[in-house]
Amino acid sequence: MSRKPKKNRLTYTSKTTSKQEILGLLSFKNSLEKDFYSTVTIRNSKVCCETNNLVIEINCSLGLLEMLYHLEQGTWGLQVFSDSVENKKTSLGERLQHIREINQTFIDIEELSIILKDCNIIIKKIAPESVEQELETILSVLAENYVYITKNLSSNPSEIFVPVYEEVSSKNHLSNLMGPTRLAENGYYSYWGLYFDLDDRAVIYDLKKKSIISGDLNLLNI
Fold first, then answer.
1. Alpha-carbon distance 85 to 65, whole Å?
2. Rg of the chain's alpha carbons, rounded to an integer?
3. If pLDDT is split at 50, 70 and 90, which confidence band does 89 have?
């Protein structure tokens, strides 16, 4: 029998450095569950200096292909609305902005995971507001690359990490070719990390070449 998770208060650090409970999260959580037909768990980030940020886990009873089908049909995922191409907004961004306003502090998403029946999708923050701004596009790009990511429909990845970074080393110094300060618009759309059930090693998917890169490659957390 599974145990019920403990209900922890989510907090942020105020200007006086005291811990304050984040207001408005129940409504935020309920809205996400409605959009994604899922059970949603939200907790504070444990990343150093980012404890005001949120880690969101969306548990959905769909498989990857089913999810992408409903995404295409507009029956699953974020609501998108805009009065112009330049002013496109999503329901996630609007709700987060409301959270910031009522708490009078900046609260961001550090990590968002979509836990499906056959695949986990883990999206990391790469810049302020990056997850809320890019989630819709990331899922659309996933749909466009589905055939290549699944090795021509022969193998479904068990985990997808968005993004990962290519690295080079010189004179014993390791540096990112694409660090968080140099990501621009391609930060999420160069390399993703993939795990397959029959292989313990991660592989890298090159979105520009639409191919899986073989070899010993590391997933980099930023």
1. 28
2. 18
3. confident
CA atoms within 13 A on the CB side of 94: 13
pLDDT digits (tens, 9 = 90+) for 149-162: 999 999 999 999 99
Helical packing angle, 91-103 and 130-144, nearest 10°: 160
Cis bond before residue 163 (omega within 30° of 0): yes
Strand 54-60, strand 109-115: pairing: parallel
Q: What is the pTM of this model?
A: 0.83
* Residue located via tokens 């004179």: 171
Residue 181 has pLDDT above 60, yes or no: no
How many angstroms separate the CA atoms of 172 and 178, rounded? 18
Token pair 């990112």 is found at 176
Residue position matching structure tokens 């295409």: 72
Distance of CA 179 to the CA centre of its chain: 17
